[in-house]
Design goal:
The complex is a heterodimer of chains A (189) and B (621).
Chain A (H helix, E strand, L loop, with lengths): L1 H22 L1 H7 L10 H33 L7 H25 L18 H24 L6 H32 L3
Chain B lengths: L29 E4 L20 H4 L6 H5 L20 E5 L4 E5 L17 H8 L13 H4 L6 H4 L6 H5 L7 H9 L6 H5 L3 E4 L24 E4 L9 E4 L7 H8 L1 E3 L14 H4 L4 H4 L22 H5 L3 H5 L32 H5 L2 H5 L9 E5 H4 L16 E8 L5 E7 L3 E6 L2 E4 L2 H8 L4 H5 L10 H14 L5 E6 L2 E5 L6 E4 L7 E4 L17 H4 L4 H4 L1 E2 L13 E2 H5 L3 H10 L3 H37 L1
Chain lengths: 189, 621
């Protein structure tokens, strides 16, 4: 069941991105290179670089986590084991750190402000929304799997936590794909 | 149980209206008349005393044919689903260095007795000591003959119902072995039940002895009976103290296991199965109806009846958690467990994947794994229960446990394994075993000294003896096949010069493995109770214990093979996993810290957002 839902969710994400790309092709041409940020201080540039690196690490880890989780187990409807699990667990830590860094550095940029619905250049409503989805569901996926490592939750609760992890992770993956797509579309991180 | 069913409202009994039934849960008092094999009543006052027959006596109320189709008796019935592999009979010959798993059920890796010339007669002679009768003890006409068979003199070895059902502590299993040695097969129930004493032996009777002409077999040294008059009441009936809920000690005569060798614990050091300690008995789980199709108790067990859920809820998982009603698999839990108050364990902290990859017995059954597998003796393989002067010595067959292997569903289960050792002829890729007697005959004096030695002087076969024997077998075989000796996971043959032994792999040299479940250990003594590293640590016994390769010859790898080789697991992957567990603590701290930061950011901005909404609402008002 989870395998089918995963395939459907990823397909929908792909279709949404394609539809969006086609629908906004004209707008992007008009936007041209006007979305470049203004000159910033040295500290600001360092922070931006850090932000960009954390974002890339986060996106890459989500993609690999999604790949190992879905190809290694989810699509086949079996448990994750072996090297895919090893990679999954190892990158889970990287994902957690990257998510925390991105959350701290980007939260302010992704705040919804009244009267500024289009947001700053490059941070449209879609990306803001997806950012908060990634942060919230990433936390769910992360915390659920961390809780499973504690000698607290029994089998029944562990299974529920696993479901939270699976579906939370799947939504993080689709949201990240959408976010990465929008980021590439906007031409800046 | 056969007899006790007479008193019970068993579903099968409704098909038998002509039989006497009580349909009460109160046991029927079995004060019964004994009948001989022809159906005539037996009296201690008879001029000619005949042995009583369970088929004629117990069969009065409990249909013998139905009972005879049960698991303990139906190994030769090709219609019966053999289920998962079980403990085989092991053809053991110290002289020729043979330990060959035999089974009439056709479990993969075993050999049919007839493949090595073992007739039903020889099966009874070799293994009847731990057979409850029936089955191979009552061969059909086509199996009746054999060069040494003397069925017409010994009579059949009928199902001895009392072997399992007797509550009388005087019931004597060992007497069965003695009577088999004497070829007094149809006299066995008389002796084991203690109702009569038998003197003489059918083996003394001449092959052409005919009881019609000479009813008194004792003239020839044949068997004669003396019934214990005190056991017969005034109506010449005897009281059978029997039950369908027999003591585990009854089962243990055939199903005992013990560790052997220097590392074997003392008897007082061993705990009983946790279920027995809780007051249960074997048949609380291993149940059966009149058909005696005893529930073996593993997941996915085939069910011959129309109530599979009753069978499936008698596995560990089924009883404690419930299972899918139709398949008995672990996928669904639509049938409730909790039979007999079985508790549902929480297993806090154990990721659910373990329930998909491991059987319950992996963590809870058998001995805890150590750095090396242990040598184990069983009743069936080593004749435990029978007195011997050689009990302290480790003699073939060599069985090792626990070996954690995956079953056909890919689920890890503790197994016992036997590395087959036998002589054979290799032709067209397959090895045809040679009967040990033929090897002895062919090898002549090469193994002659061994044939004259007693078991206490046993020594493993040497390379030279094996090479010499292969030469002798080569001289007598055909050109199409080559003599080989299978031992310790390899096939040995002579090199081109016919002098040196060379070893190679062959599927038939693979160990025969069968799962086991008992004794069950409680949670505190289960595998993993001490932490993840018990299985996932570097060098953990679960994957890295050395599986001893032991056989009746001084050949092969004395160090044994690491468990992961038999599991088909990659050692590098296991080591990588073990290595990653060093950082598990860091991972937890990092994960929780990151979760805390993300949670804090979400909380702050959520509160800010809520505050802004509230302020906006306030302004509107």
């Amino acid at each position: 069941m989870f395998g089918l839902i995963s395939i459907a969710a990823l397909s929908l994400t792909l279709v949404a991105c394609v539809v969006h790309a086609l629908a906004t092709a004209g707008d992007r041409r008009e936007a041209g290179g006007d979305s470049r940020p203004p000159e910033a201080s040295r500290a600001r540039r360092a922070l931006d670089r850090c932000n960009a690196v954390a974002y890339v690490v986060l996106a890459a880890s989500v993609l690999v986590l999604g790949w190992t989780g879905l190809v290694g187990a989810g699509f086949a409807g079996r448990a994750l084991t072996g090297y895919p699990l090893l990679v999954h667990v190892g990158l889970g830590g990287v994902f957690g750190v990257a998510l925390a860094v991105v959350a701290v550095l980007r939260a302010e940029c992704c705040r919804f402000r009244p009267g500024a619905s289009s947001g700053e250049p490059g941070f449209g409503t879609g990306r803001k929304l997806l950012f908060w989805v990634i942060a919230a569901l990433g936390l769910a996926a992360l915390l659920s799997t961390m809780c499973m490592m504690l000698p607290v939750f029994g089998t029944h609760d562990q299974r529920r936590l696993l479901e939270v992890h699976r579906y939370g992770g799947l939504l993080v993956l689709t949201a990240t794909l959408g976010h990465v797509y929008l980021t590439f579309r906007s031409g800046r991180g | 149980m056969v007899l006790a069913l007479c008193s019970d409202g068993d579903a099968d009994a409704k098909d038998l209206p002509e039989r006497l039934l009580t349909h009460s849960r109160s046991p029927y008092v079995h004060r019964v008349t004994l009948y001989d094999e022809t159906g005539e009543a037996v009296s201690p006052e008879d001029f000619e005393l005949r042995p009583w027959s369970p088929s004629a006596t117990c069969g009065k109320c409990h249909p013998y044919e139905t009972v005879g189709g049960g698991w303990h008796f139906n190994a030769g019935n090709a219609q019966v689903d053999p289920g998962r592999p079980g403990e085989p009979w092991i053809l053991t010959d110290l002289v020729t260095g043979t330990q060959l798993p035999l089974s009439r059920r056709g479990w993969p890796g075993t050999y049919k007795p007839e493949q090595v010339g073992v007739t039903p007669w020889e099966m009874v002679q070799r293994f009847g000591r731990h057979l409850p009768g029936g089955g191979v003890g009552e061969p059909g006409a086509e199996e009746f003959a054999g060069p040494e068979a003397r069925w017409q003199l010994s009579g059949p070895m009928e199902i001895d119902c009392l072997a399992c059902h007797s509550l009388d502590r005087r019931y004597d299993h060992v007497a069965r072995a003695r009577q088999i040695e004497q070829q007094n097969l149809k006299w066995i129930p008389t002796v084991t039940s203690g109702i009569g004493t038998v003197r003489g032996a059918a083996k003394n009777l001449p092959a052409d002895y005919d009881p019609l002409f000479n009813p008194d077999a004792s003239q020839f040294g044949g068997p004669s009976i003396e019934y214990d008059d005190a056991l017969f009441d005034a109506n010449e009936r005897v009281f059978f103290d029997i039950s369908r809920r027999m003591s585990p000690e009854r089962c243990y005569f055939c199903h005992t296991t013990r560790h052997a060798g220097d590392r074997a614990p003392e008897r007082w050091e061993i705990d009983r199965d946790v279920h027995l300690a809780a007051g249960m008995i074997c048949v609380d789980c291993h149940r059966n109806g009149l058909d005696h199709a005893i529930v073996r108790g593993y997941e996915g067990e085939p069910s011959s009846g129309d109530t599979p859920s009753s069978v499936h809820t008698l596995s560990c998982r089924g009883c404690h958690y419930g299972v899918d009603s139709d398949s008995g698999t672990r996928q669904s839990e639509s049938v409730r467990g909790g039979r007999l108050g079985a508790p549902q364990a929480d297993h806090p902290g154990l990721p659910p994947v373990h329930f998909e990859k491991l059987s319950c017995t992996t963590c809870h059954g058998g001995p805890l794994p150590t750095g090396r597998t242990r040598s184990v003796e069983t009743s069936m393989a080593h004749g435990l229960g029978l007195a011997s002067r050689h009990r302290g010595e480790e003699l073939p067959p060599f069985i090792e446990e626990p070996v954690f292997l995956r079953d056909e569903d890919g689920v890890y289960t503790p197994h016992r394994i036997l590395w087959p050792a036998f002589w054979g002829r290799l032709g067209e890729g397959a090895i045809q075993p040679i009967a040990p007697e033929s090897v002895r005959h062919s090898a002549g004096e090469v193994l002659g000294g061994r044939a004259r030695a007693n078991p206490g002087q046993w020594q493993p076969l040497t390379e030279d003896e094996i090479a010499q024997t292969l030469k002798m077998l080569g001289q007598q075989g055909d050109d199409a096949s080559e003599p080989v000796y299978v031992h310790g996971g390899a096939v040995y043959e002579l090199d081109g010069n016919g002098e040196q032994l060379i070893a190679r792999d062959h599927p038939q040299a693979a160990p025969y493995a069968w799962p086991f479940a008992h004794d069950v250990r409680p949670a505190a003594r289960s595998l993993g109770a001490g932490g993840c590293a018990e299985c996932h640590g570097d060098g953990s016994p679960f994957h890295f214990a050395r599986v001893a390769i032991r056989g009746p010859a001084a050949l092969g790898d004395a160090e044994g093979r690491p468990m992961h080789e038999l599991q088909g697991k990659d050692a590098a992957e296991l080591r990588a996993w073990a290595w990653s567990f060093r950082f598990r603590g860091w991972l937890k701290w990092t994960g929780f810290a990151a979760s805390g930061v993300v949670g804090l950011v979400l909380l702050v901005y959520l509160l800010q957002g809520v505050g802004r909404v509230l302020r906006a609402l306030g302004r509107e008002e």
